[in-house]
Specification:
By secondary structure, this protein is mainly alpha-helical. The chain folds into two domains: about 25 residues, no CATH class; about 30 residues. The protein contains three helices and no strands. The longest helix has 23 residues. The protein is flat, with a radius of gyration of 20 Å. It starts with a helix and ends in a 6-residue tail after the last helix.
Length: about 70
């Protein structure tokens, strides 16, 4: 039980330290990536796909047999 909490804790500490001490480089790279992908037309497509996924998941949950 202790190992199950220790390993994710160490991973989160490492990621946190990476974000604290390397935030400027991460921000610059992320901005360049988002600038390429998040145009208005791409966002329209992403929201349409997300809407379809949510609609299908809603139908699936409505007709799912609750015998779990």
């Amino acid at each position: 039980m202790i190992i199950e909490k220790l390993i994710p804790g160490i991973v989160f500490i490492g990621i946190g330290l990476l974000f604290v001490f390397n935030n400027e480089q991460i921000a610059k790279g992320t901005f360049k990536l988002y600038k390429k992908f998040y145009t208005e037309n791409n966002l329209k497509i992403m929201f349409r796909v997300c809407g379809i996924i949510f609609f299908l998941l809603g139908l699936f949950l409505m007709f799912l047999n609750n015998s779990f």
